[in-house]
Structure formats: structure tokens, C-alpha cells
Amino acid sequence: MDISIHMSTLPQDDPDAAVAFYHDVLGFEVRSDVGQGKMRWITVGPADQPGTSILLAPPAVDPGVTEAERRTIAEMMAKGTYGWILLATKNLDSTFEKIQAGDAEVVQEPTEQPYGVRDCAFRDPAGNLIRIQELR
């Protein structure tokens, strides 16, 4: 089989804040931005990896989602327990400093984990957990 990861999805509830974080803080390029107002689907990704993207999508817009499910999703996003992604970098300390300087909410400073990785964590404007692991 020849399968690759093309795109992953994270929820966003403020498109402008999402673009500011993923473009201005993380340095990803904005590949597409469709829709209007709060109903925007934004695709971002690292410039040197054109085949891998993150779709930042409005949550719970599927017509099959009930009002109770929408409330649950909103509550989980507010707590930061709805979406997360694991990124990687060769220089964790430098990356951490740049993201921290961008006023991102720090969840965990660079730490050597007991399971053998060194990583840190932030929250994006929608509350999604962004873990960044150091490549070794």
C-alpha cells in the first residue's frame, strides 16, 4: 500500500486568531481560506512540506450534529480537551522560545519525558493542545 498523511483537521472558532497563530506564530503558510465570517475553512502547513496540511475548520457544522452535541463540543473546546496535534522540530528550545514570544499559552515547557521523548506543549486560540516533540 502507498498511503500518506495528507491532511489532519483541528477545530477553530475564530478564523482570524487561527491564522495569526498558525501563520504568524508557527510560521505555516496559509494554503487556502474559504468561506466567510466565522464559517471559514483554512488550510495551513509548513512551506517545505506541501503534501501535509492542517485544516482549521469551524466545529460542529455538519447538519447531522445535534444541538446537544454542539454544546458538548463547545464545552470541550473551552476546556482544551477536544482537539490536539503532535508536531516535531529539530531544535525544541529555539522553537519553544519563538512560540512563547508569540504570546501562545504555554502548557508545558520543554521537558524530558519518562517515556523517552523531549517535548513541550501550547494551546492554540481555540484551546487545541499543540505538542511539539524534539527530533533526535
List keywords for this structure.
alpha/beta, 3 helices, four-stranded mixed β-sheet, 136 residues, globular
Structure notes:
It is a single chain. This protein is α/β, with parallel strands linked by helices and 136 residues long. It contains three helices and eight strands. The strands form two sheets. A four-stranded mixed beta sheet has the order 1-4-3-2, covered by helices on one side. A four-stranded mixed beta sheet has the order 5-8-7-6, covered by helices on one side. A hairpin with a 5-residue loop joins strand 6 and strand 7. The radius of gyration is 15 Å and the shape is globular. The two termini are 28 Å apart. The mean pLDDT is 94.
Question: Care to give the gist of this entry?
Answer:
With 136 residues, the protein is an alpha/beta fold.
